[in-house]
Amino acid sequence: CSDKPVGPALLVSDRQEGIGVCGWILVSLSFLLVLITFPVSIWACIKVVREYERAVVFRLGRILSKKAKGPGLILVLPCTDTFTKVDLRTVTCKIPPQEILTRDAVTAQVDGVVRYRIHSAVSAVANVTDVHSATLLLAQTTLRNVLGTQSLAQLLAGREDIAHSIQATLDSATEQWGVTVARVEIKDIRIPMAMQRAMAAEAEAARETKAKVVAAEGERNASKALQKASMVLSESPAALPLRYLQTLTAVAAQNNSTIVFPLPMNMFGSLGKKSTGG
Fold first, then answer.
1. What is the pLDDT of residues 220-262, one digit of tens each?
2. For 98, phi and psi rounded to 5 degrees?
3. Which residues of 174-195 are buried (b: 16+ CB within 10 A; e: fewer)?
4. Among candidates 121, 44, 60, which has minimal Cα distance to 85?
5. Rounded to the nearest 10 degrees, what angle do helices 239-254 and 193-235 cross at?
6. Rounded CA separation 145/189 (Å)
7. Which key words tag this protein in UniProt (predicted)?
8. How far apart are the C-alpha atoms of 57 and 86, rounded to whole Å?
9. Which pTM was predicted?
10. Which residues, at least 6 apart from 257, have a Cβ–Cβ distance to it below 8 Å?
11. Distance between CA atoms of 75 and 237, rounded to whole angstroms?
12. pLDDT, tens digit, 9 for 90 and up, residues 39-59
């Protein structure tokens, strides 16, 4: 007994063996019954398949054709033929919250959304019991397995890359079921409240450290600028009184206040000499 998955090609090869002599006798009797009861029996033979559906017809337990039938009208024989309709529209399925343990030993709850569609109705019917339930369970398992290899920082920052990894893993696993996974989205990530407080404290400490570094850098630049200004003022003795007067003008423009302007004593001495000489 082989453990390899049974694909559509293997199913087709099995169907080529035929239904046997007894099977053909039953099919002939069924066809004869349709002819005898025509046109009443035509209503039991004609089935309608919608545009977004395909019908997989079984004749005496074997799939009738390599390809599903539809859309439109299809003919089935009573008593010997049965059929199963498969919806080909895109299915949006919510992944329930999964309790995971990240690589750095942080517990988190993660849920998501998976979108998929059936591209092969024959494979979806013949290779899996319930294709929708199997796809959902596989999506849950893949979500836990992939997120378990990521750290919390990678989980929070790299949602898009992780979603693409989950999608590729799901798509390769569901190919034998005739399912194509269109998109996987990580919807929400919940972490314990204690971890949220610790992360907030860590972020606040990082911001304070950065602010102190920026302030120290500003003080260093200001000190260099003041050093250069003092060198310029020392080269010209008249520059300092002019800067002083400019500062007083700026203060007077901002605030309506009385400014006491001190005059140097040597100025009074020179004025006294001028008055005495005069």
1. 888 888 788 778 777 777 676 777 777 777 766 666 666 666 6
2. -110, 130
3. bbbbbbbbeebbbeebebeeee
4. 121
5. 130
6. 16
7. Membrane, Transmembrane, Transmembrane helix
8. 11
9. 0.65
10. 251
11. 111
12. 878 888 889 999 999 999 998
CA distances to 85, 92, 142, 180, 183 from 100, rounded to whole Å, are 37, 23, 11, 26, 21
Q: Considering only CA atoms, give the Rg of the chain.
A: 42
Strand order in the sheet with 81-87: 62-63, 53-59, 81-87
d(CA 66, CA 120): 10
Categorize the per-residue pLDDT at 21 as very low, low, confident or very high, splitting at 50, 70 and 90. confident
Report the candidate in 104, 113, 105, 109 with the shortest Cα–Cα distance to residue 190: 109
For 216, phi and psi rounded to 5 degrees?
Answer: -65, -40
Q: What six digits make up the tokens of 167?
A: 């999608």
